[in-house]
Amino acid sequence: MKTKTQLMVELCTEARTRFTNQLVNLTQEDLTKRLPPSVNSVGFLMRHIGDVELLFAKNVFGAKSVKVIAKTVIAQTDTGEWTNLRELKTYVTDSFETLKAIVAEQSDADWETTLTTNEFGTKTKAEAFGRIISHTNHHAGQMAVALKYGSSRME
To answer: Who contacts 68 (Cβ-Cβ below 8 Å, separation ≥6)?
Structure first.
């Protein structure tokens, strides 16, 4: 029988495929696509997913060694700088590996402990984990629509 933690790692890995499957065929030109009137490009959304995964690893799950400057959270809007496909792919791969590693360190009892943040109030770690999974999938959906129907800012 698997532990709660093993199940959580499997859950987040599978759920994230809604995001990672899009990265396979992504091109450099796709990074500037957006769906007006939204100002957030595909590149911004990728960076934002990585930023928030790192914030969760550090602030929710206690990965003290994580250093993150969540530029998309700080800026709160697309600054147009997220246009390097290789860098973005590396960033979101690393952010997920960091999150997954700290999640794998949680004990089964940890999932029932509570924490309080300004962003989402008081939640158990399990509830907070649901939030990061849904956050990634929310923005992965936005990316999919922008890739299918959006256009580049430069057009």
So the answer is: 51, 54, 55, 58
